[in-house]
């Protein structure tokens, strides 16, 4: 990129940042800032006159100057490189007409459990069982993004491209979808599946919603088994092919595992060996939810609010 164009892009980013600080931008603009940052960052690296240690310096600088867009790792920035520059500025019907509103989740103290694991580790399969037996609302970040593509949203093309390339969609887009789904729901307890997939996902979710997860369920499955499951899934997903899978596994190791480590250091991770049968994995996690349900009923009784029966809390 020529110096003039880079300067113009930097100026545009700075201008959007100023407006974003005032919370007066439509949601797609936040995605635009993120991607313009990415473009700047990776184009600077592509010039090859920036030494690797200086590239890390770039990352650190952007972290300190503006945490929201730039917490992403340098490798994540490189992954957005193939995105056509004009795609990032696309404004869709859902974003241009809506006034910018502060992002808050309106449900009363929603309780959140994050369900993490690599592609094909069985997150969706187990979430369906947890919902069946323990009445959580299941929000799959991947499903919400696919629904956004199918809705004809202005962000659809960009999301589709990111998913086809095995990349992580800008956090502001995913967090807004999660937030909307939580607001729409009557539930106050959510299983959020496939999120946060990066440190940036986590930071934006925390900043925007103020929600701290109760715990994290992490399904541990070796790479070769995940590959076998994904390639045998047969649901017609555009990202269930060997090329995209390689990228998804790389992103999982480089961007998602650090999030698991982050929560592990806080003592919040329940790591589950998910290589056994679907039934066996569910029996392994069941006690966690029984315990959770018990805690739930105790809190309700103590608060003198409703409780589900006159007797003790139902145990499954
Ligand atoms: N314990 C298991 N043993 C064998 N196969 C399983 C097991 N759990 C799930 N599967 C199968 O593996 C495939 C992937 O499972 P699932 O869709 O639940 O994974 P996921 O973690 O949600 O994947 P993704 O992140 O790609 O959406 C499905 O075909 C599912 O039937
Ligand atoms: N937090 C997330 C969750 C998902 N995506 C994108 C990228 C994934 O490869 C794709 C499919 O998700 P899955 O159904 O496998 O959970 O959706 C993302 O960008 N950010």
TrEMBL record:
<feature type="binding site">
    <location>
        <begin position="167"/>
        <end position="169"/>
    </location>
    <ligand>
        <name>a ribonucleoside 5'-phosphate</name>
    </ligand>
</feature>
<comment type="subunit">
    <text>Monomer.</text>
</comment>
<feature type="binding site">
    <location>
        <position position="248"/>
    </location>
    <ligand>
        <name>a ribonucleoside 5'-phosphate</name>
    </ligand>
</feature>
<dbReference type="InterPro" id="IPR027417">
    <property type="entry name" value="P-loop_NTPase"/>
</dbReference>
<keyword id="KW-0418">Kinase</keyword>
<dbReference type="InterPro" id="IPR033690">
    <property type="entry name" value="Adenylat_kinase_CS"/>
</dbReference>
<feature type="binding site">
    <location>
        <begin position="194"/>
        <end position="197"/>
    </location>
    <ligand>
        <name>a ribonucleoside 5'-phosphate</name>
    </ligand>
</feature>
<feature type="binding site">
    <location>
        <position position="237"/>
    </location>
    <ligand>
        <name>a ribonucleoside 5'-phosphate</name>
    </ligand>
</feature>
<dbReference type="Pfam" id="PF00406">
    <property type="entry name" value="ADK"/>
</dbReference>
<comment type="function">
    <text>Catalyzes the phosphorylation of pyrimidine nucleoside monophosphates at the expense of ATP. Plays an important role in de novo pyrimidine nucleotide biosynthesis. Has preference for UMP and CMP as phosphate acceptors.</text>
</comment>
<feature type="binding site">
    <location>
        <position position="201"/>
    </location>
    <ligand>
        <name>CMP</name>
    </ligand>
</feature>
<keyword id="KW-0665">Pyrimidine biosynthesis</keyword>
<keyword id="KW-0539">Nucleus</keyword>
<protein>
    <recommendedName>
        <fullName>UMP-CMP kinase</fullName>
        <ecNumber>2.7.4.14</ecNumber>
    </recommendedName>
</protein>
<dbReference type="InterPro" id="IPR000850">
    <property type="entry name" value="Adenylat/UMP-CMP_kin"/>
</dbReference>
<keyword id="KW-0963">Cytoplasm</keyword>
<dbReference type="InterPro" id="IPR006266">
    <property type="entry name" value="UMP_CMP_kinase"/>
</dbReference>
<keyword id="KW-0547">Nucleotide-binding</keyword>
<feature type="binding site">
    <location>
        <position position="146"/>
    </location>
    <ligand>
        <name>a ribonucleoside 5'-phosphate</name>
    </ligand>
</feature>
<feature type="binding site">
    <location>
        <begin position="120"/>
        <end position="125"/>
    </location>
    <ligand>
        <name>ATP</name>
    </ligand>
</feature>
<feature type="binding site">
    <location>
        <position position="233"/>
    </location>
    <ligand>
        <name>ATP</name>
    </ligand>
</feature>
<feature type="binding site">
    <location>
        <position position="276"/>
    </location>
    <ligand>
        <name>ATP</name>
    </ligand>
</feature>
<keyword id="KW-0808">Transferase</keyword>
<comment type="similarity">
    <text>Belongs to the adenylate kinase family. UMP-CMP kinase subfamily.</text>
</comment>
<keyword id="KW-0067">ATP-binding</keyword>
